[in-house]
Amino acid sequence: AQPSAPDPISAPLRSLDFGQLNFLHTTDTHGWLAGHLQEPSYSADWGDYISFATRMREKAEAQGQDLLVIDTGDRVEGNGLYDSSEPKGVYLSDILRHQHIDLLTSGNHELYKKNTSEAEFFTTVPNFRGNYLASNIDIIHPTTKELVPLAPRYKKFTTKKQGIRVVAFGFLFDFTGNWNNTVVQKVSSTIKEDWFQEAIRDKEVDLFLVIGHVPVHSPEYQAIFKEIRGIRWDTPIHFFGGHQHIRDYARYDSKAFGLASGRFMETVGFASIDGLNTPKSTHLSSAVASPVFKRRYIDQNLFSYYHHTGLDEKSFPTEKGQNVSRLIAKARTDLHLDQVHGCAPHELWMSRVKYPSPSSLYTWLETQVLADSLKDERRVNVPTLAVVNTGALRFDIFPGPFTQDSTFILSPFTSGFRYLKNVPFDKAQLIVEVLNKQPQVLQASQEGSSPTTLAPPEQLAYPEDVVVDKEPVAFDQTPLSDSRKLVPGYTTEDDAGKDGDDTVHEPISFYRVPNCLQVLLNNSTETPETVDLVYIDFIEKYVVQAAKIAGLDIDVAKESDVYMPQMSLTNLILDWVKKNWKC
Ligand SMILES: Nc1ccn([C@@H]2O[C@H](COP(=O)(O)O)[C@@H](O)[C@H]2O)c(=O)n1
């Protein structure tokens, strides 16, 4: 772990059920390779994860079993380790590559910008040569300008110990926000292509593995499941997914399951399959008709890692893991990530408290940061309605030092502001109302595709608020090894029940927020007739649609202009923190 990481807190743990084939899975890590330096439950780092995967592989192989390590994308954007370097990601990719990852794929964040997808093409794909899959992503080759697959479409391989014959695919959900140097083909048309049809007709396959940056409960994964099942009625399928930042497990049928392993290096997903028919096992009388699938969501800390490997402080770390922890510490020093810009007086939560409220991160952004600091000197005293999508803020703020790292953890994106002059106030309000009308924003959600949102992605999995009654939870699973108070954390309920989390936690509330927050900046007590409608540039395409619906007949892209040139939301927040949160 990193030198400043808090020690994990002991907690009652559920164990892992190993099988013939075992998996470790990360997704949506968003640069958090140093782990969480303010939260004991997630305080291990990528170096510890490397040691963990090594020890788990040793354990599996000693039992004659196999272990595969999988990552399903969104490795970038969301943490100082990625976002604060110039160019972005140079430290991150060098740290990432030390983990032996058997299969990986791209997320949407790898494709928002041209330089990010080109870095995948030139660095991450070669770093994991042969293991990076891109079933539905093409990129314009930066030199030849030809449209080429970002990485191979699929792969067939045989596992080391059990000889399990696997065909693996790597998908991205039907993402449309990519830069125009990449092409994301819809999943429903990709699975009709000849190469896919041939791959699923291969009879020499014991397991189909579908990894992807796709929610496990999604139209895209349903379509892939149906397509494979239509041809191979009996072959086991394991899906690994992500994107919604949640822990989730889907049962498609008795031989097909899918695991999603959370976000931000809070979770390492574990899955296993036992009873697969393989060329070896079919000769044995022990071959089983129906395989058994298991899953567990591991809290990413050393207490869990020691427990699951049966090792301790001395026997657990590997030399490589320790070197990588040192590499991360050096990168954090080079990037000045511990530099303190101010001190937060109390917690500000994204979803643990109601919005609006004094402890809501969004209320703070509206009533303090934007209200104090959003001003273009060319537009002084002009009434302004400011709109920012809630998904632009990515993490809670904890009391204490607000560092260079906290800045990017909170607001990693480079988005700035644009504005439309003299918008009738009632129309401006209507535009915000339209933006907030639905969970899925405007953009006629494509049929058969995952919904998109301007709110934090976790919210797609919560149709309603979850309000936790603060009474201690009853624990009816494995016996408690420790009767102390439970630590608040994940209490996942999925298609296999309520016993998925390795650590038994006290539950946490989840309150929904609107797609966009808004603040009226007006020096007068009178309602303005017109306002400057200021919006964060990421939502411009949605503002265009909302303006049409609101009956504002203008060409938004043409008539809008940059507001506070050179100022990003990230820097606006940082300047406010420096001025207002003295330590
Ligand atoms: N420049 C950006 C990029 C993304 N967002 C928000 O993040 C959501 C997607 O996040 P995932 O990690 O789930 O891919 C997106 O819907 C936006 O809410 C943003 O605000 N600015």
Q: What's the CATH topology label of the largest domain?
A: Purple Acid Phosphatase, chain A, domain 2
Q: What's the CATH first level of the largest domain?
A: Alpha Beta
**Ligand list:** ligand L45E5XJ5
Computed over alpha carbons, the radius of gyration is 24 Å
Pfam families: Metallophos, NadN_nucleosid_C
Domain Putative 5'-nucleotidase C-terminal: 348-544
GO molecular function: hydrolase activity
Protein name: Calcineurin-like phosphoesterase domain-containing protein
Quick structural overview:
The protein is α/β, with parallel strands linked by helices. Helix content is 25%, strand content 21%. A hairpin with a 6-residue loop joins strand 4 and strand 5 (147-149).
Notes on the structure:
The chain has about 575 residues and is α/β, with parallel strands linked by helices. The protein has two domains: about 20-335, 4-Layer Sandwich (Purple Acid Phosphatase, chain A, domain 2); about 340-455 and about 515-580, 5'-Nucleotidase, C-terminal domain (5'-nucleotidase,  domain 2, Alpha-Beta Complex). About 25% of the residues lie in helices and about 20% in strands. The chain is built from 15 helices and 21 strands. The chain has a six-stranded mixed sheet with strand order 6-7-9-10-12-11, covered by helices on one side. The chain has a five-stranded mixed sheet with strand order 3-2-1-13-14. It has a five-stranded mixed sheet with strand order 19-16-20-18-21. β6 (about 155-160) and β7 form a beta hairpin. α1 packs antiparallel against α9 (about 320-335) and α12 packs across α13. The longest helix has 17 residues, at about 45-60. Residues about 470-485 have low confidence and may be disordered. This is Calcineurin-like phosphoesterase domain-containing protein. One of its GO terms (molecular function) is hydrolase activity.
